[in-house]
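=== RUN LOG ===
request id: a7f3
mode: sequence -> structure
chains: 1
length: 99
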Amino acid sequence: MRLRLDHGDITLQEMADAEEVLGCSLATAFERSQAKAIAALAWIVKRRDDPTFTFDQALALRMSDLDIVTPGSPGEVPGGGNGLSPPASPASGLLTRPT
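=== RESULT ===
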């Protein structure tokens, strides 16, 4: 099974449902446990097609089962803080002092 997680496709009600099952806001959930936050998003997306799908089943998913879509338009470099991946590092190079 491949499950596509796209933040832009999740309704406010679905976000509220995820927060209810997590017992906190999604922002807090991503800070505490990215695994549980991602599982909650997977749960709300999968239950659209299968209302019997449970949060425990979502926790059993592998990352390879998920297709996580990063917010932003094609060609846009995503910013940090979306909770799904670490922030991008600046390009490596030599630092020089201003003269």
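=== NOTES ===
Residues 3-69 form one domain.
Residues 75-79 have pLDDT under 50 and may be disordered.
=== END ===
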